[in-house]
Structure formats: structure tokens, C-alpha cells
Design a protein that fits this description.
436 residues; mainly alpha; three-stranded antiparallel beta sheet; 22 helices; 7% strand; elongated
Length: 436
């Protein structure tokens, strides 16, 4: 219920209402802090508090809107319904809160709010479980999410959100090179367009389609237009803010990217997802000490978070701490279950002089590529570390032919700094559309 209300509030009146993300709110679930203390910690004007009690086939939801300034109850109401009617309560609460905080909703917004609920609790449970697994930052979690989204779609093909979730899951698999780009991103496009066909105001669907335009089509203008449209419908969407910030980073618009990340952190201060992206930004701009600090902070929040280990390892590589880099990158590989982190290990082995060990991993990946998909980008990383420029450029050319998404970040990665003076690098950037 918290998840759904957060999403609905975020889309009510984008010009006037920003909503803190669920992950940061739930840290206060069992707190003894006062409403004022919680509100000040989150930087909000209002808190929505509530409880649920079930007996037999009935459920009672108690909800209160609290003004942080004086801890007064602006509004309170109990809802007694059958369990099967539970999802309609979300819309009733959202509408009541909108009235109390004097949001001026258009007829279109009210109509969308009134029609947003899915009456089948099984469908909503499949969708929310899909959301849960999709943020696990590992391949197994994403595959579980895809299965759950398909279950929701089979039960309610008119419900847009599972299509948007399905699209985002395929994009993540493509982003991790866990699926070939010509499979992952077209699947993501179909799902995103179906979601928009059903609900043209769904920010997550606009974001997913913009991600496909960015990572696969290499259509920068269309991608940015999509991100802006998504934010116009829900400026509180962490997914959109993170994707747009990533796009701006690839475009070398560093200040704008940082501004969006700061905005996302204000909305979701407890998010490891957002804190990890700060490490990505610092790393991309060669600010290694700041990136290490951000990666360590991420791992303090979640010691098993793969992206935290990945960027801690990548920074250690750039600062010459090779043994520590290998250890962190191996932890990242174990946590995420994707081949890309193994390739990073091989690269560090190569640059640290452990050539035979690096080539052993290279050969293992070559053997693996005969059985399943392995991105040529990973081989390019290793060959760059080995100093074999010709092989590295052959792999990068294969990346171009495959439309590997990693090419969109070519201006970011320090691992390829030893290739940048070669005319073949400039030629590659021009064809991708990233030349100055």
C-alpha cells in the first residue's frame, strides 16, 4: 500500500508536490521519533501515517495526514472494506489527501486517479513482488521479476504498470550484458509501448522507452525528450531521475547529472541505488577519492550491494591498489551473478602484471561465449588491459555492429584511456554519435 500510494501521490500534481520514496520512508516504520523529528529528517511538510487490521474477510485501514510544523492532524479517516476491495482504498486516500493539501487536479488527473486501481489483489501482489525482485541487483532477481510481471499481465492484460516493470527488467538485463542487446532492448521497447498504449501518463513507461532510445537506438534527442516527459508526469520518480542522470553523464553534461542525483537523494536519502550512482559519477570524472568514499558509504548501507563493490574495485584499479581491486571485483561478481564483473577482474590482473591469470579468465569467457552470450565489450576491456590495441579495437567494432549499450558510455570509462589517442577511437565515437 505504501508503494502504491507513493506512486500515486508522485503523479498527482507534479508542479507542487514531491514525495519521498518508499525505501527512505520505511526506515521510520517502528521508530519512536515524533512526527516533527521525522518530518525534519526527511525535509517534508506533511506525513501520511496509517495502520491496517484484518479480521476474517474484512480489513480496516486507519490513515492520518499530519502537518509536520505543529504535529496537528489535518485529516483522519477509517476505511472498513472487504479484503477484495482493498485496492480501491488507495485511490480514496489519494483523492482525500489531494483535497486536504489543496492540490488543483485537472479533470484528466482525477479521471486517471479514479481509474487507476486494479480490483484483483492477486494481480497487484504479482506486480509488487516483481518490483521487489527487480531492485535486487542480480540476474536471478530480474528473472524472477520478469516471471512475476508476466503473471500479472496474464491476469490483467489491461493493467499498464506490469508492462512498464517488464520493460525496465529487460533494460537492466541488457545493461548488465546478461542478454544480447538485440534481444533485451527490442523486448523492452515492445513492453514500454504497450504500457503507454494503456496509460500515456505512466512515468515509468516513458522512462523505459527513453532508456531504449538512449542505450540501443543512440537517439540522444528522443531519449532526452522522453526523460523530460516522464518527469513532467512524476517528478518524484527515482527511476527517471537516475536514468536521466546517467544519460547526462554519458553526454558529458556532468553538472546537470550531479544536480539530478542530488534531487534524487533528497527524495530517497536511504537509497543505496542513488548513493552508488554518486560513486559512478565521481569515477567517470576521475575523482577517485570521492568515488571511493561514495562506494564505501553505499556498502555501509548494504554490505552485499554489487555496484558498491564494483566501483570500489574500479577505483582501486585506477589508484594502483590492485590486490584490493581484485578482491572487491570478485565480490561484485559473486553478488550480481553477471559476467561483466569477471572481465573487470581479468583486466586488473592484466594491468598488474599477472598476465597468465588474466588470459586464463579470457579463455574461460571465450569458451563460455560458445554456450551463451558474452558481450564483446568484455573482451575489449581485457585486451585493453593486456595492451593489445588491435584486438581491443576488433572487439569494439563488434560492439558497434551489435549495438552494445556500453558504447554510449565510451567517454566515461578510464579503462580505455590508453586507446583514446588512436584514430580508430575517434572514428568509433563519430559513428556512435559521441564525437565532440
Amino acid at each position: 500500500m505504501t508503494e502504491e500510494l507513493t506512486t500515486q501521490f508522485g503523479a498527482l500534481d507534479p508542479a507542487r508536490l514531491l514525495v519521498i520514496a518508499r525505501a527512505s520512508v520505511m526506515q521510520f516504520k517502528d521508530t519512536r521519533l515524533t512526527a516533527r523529528e521525522i518530518g525534519q529528517s526527511l525535509g517534508v511538510d506533511y506525513l501520511l501515517a496509517g495502520s491496517a487490521r484484518c479480521a476474517g474477510g474484512r480489513v480496516r485501514i486507519s490513515a492520518q495526514l499530519i502537518q509536520v510544523r505543529d504535529q496537528s492532524h489535518v485529516w483522519a479517516k477509517n476505511y472498513d472494506r472487504n479484503v477484495g476491495d482493498l485496492l480501491t482504498i488507495e485511490n480514496d486516500i489519494a483523492q482525500a489527501i489531494a483535497d486536504e493539501v489543496q492540490l488543483k487536479l485537472s479533470d484528466q488527473q482525477r479521471a486517471r486517479l479514479n481509474g487507476a486501481a486494479i480490483q484483483n489483489p492477486d494481480v497487484q501482489e504479482c506486480y509488487l513482488k516483481g518490483r521487489f525482485f527487480s531492485v535486487k541487483e542480480n540476474r536471478a532477481g530480474l528473472m524472477s521479476a520478469i516471471s512475476l510481471y508476466h503473471q500479472a499481465i496474464e491476469k490483467a492484460p489491461e493493467y499498464a504498470s506490469p508492462y512498464a516493470g517488464l520493460s525496465a527488467a529487460y533494460i537492466r538485463l541488457g545493461h548488465w550484458s546478461a542478454l544480447p542487446p538485440r534481444r533485451a532492448f527490442p523486448e523492452a521497447r515492445v513492453a514500454a509501448m504497450k504500457a503507454l498504449e494503456l496509460d500515456g501518463f505512466l512515468a515509468e513507461a516513458h522512462t523505459a522507452l527513453a532508456d531504449v532510445n538512449f542505450l540501443y537506438d543512440w537517439d540522444w534527442a528522443k531519449a532526452e525528450s522522453g526523460y523530460k516527459k516522464a518527469l513532467s508526469f512524476n517528478p518524484s520518480s527515482i527511476q527517471t531521475l537516475r536514468s536521466y542522470a546517467s544519460f547526462l553523464l554519458a553526454m558529458k553534461r556532468f553538472a546537470e547529472s550531479t544536480d539530478l542525483t542530488q534531487r534524487a537523494r533528497q527524495l530517497d536519502p536511504a537509497s543505496v541505488y542513488i548513493n552508488a550512482f554518486a560513486a559512478v559519477q565521481y569515477y567517470s570524472t576521475r575523482q577517485y577519492a570521492a568515488s571511493i568514499e561514495a562506494a564505501r558509504k553505499t556498502l555501509q548501507m548494504d554490505p552485499g550491494y554489487s555496484t558498491g563493490h564494483l566501483f570500489l574495485g574500479l577505483n582501486y584499479e585506477q589508484t594502483g591498489h590492485y590486490d584490493a581491486a581484485i578482491e572487491e571485483l570478485r565480490q561484485a561478481a559473486a553478488a550480481a551473478g553477471v559476467k561483466s564483473n569477471v572481465a573487470h577482474v581479468a583486466r586488473v590482473l592484466a594491468v598488474s602484471g599477472r598476465i597468465d591469470e588474466a588470459k586464463e579468465i579470457l579463455n574461460e569467457l571465450r569458451e563460455e561465449s560458445r554456450r551463451s552470450y558474452v558481450s564483446p565489450w568484455l573482451f575489449a576491456l581485457i585486451y585493453s588491459g593486456l595492451g593489445d590495441k588491435d584486438q581491443a579495437f576488433d572487439c569494439l567494432e563488434e560492439c558497434y555492429q551489435n549495438r552494445e549499450h556500453d558504447l554510449t558510455y565510451s567517454n566515461m570509462w578510464p579503462q580505455f584511456d590508453n586507446l583514446r589517442s588512436d584514430p580508430r577511437w575517434s572514428s568509433l565515437l563519430r559513428r556512435v554519435g559521441l564525437s565532440p
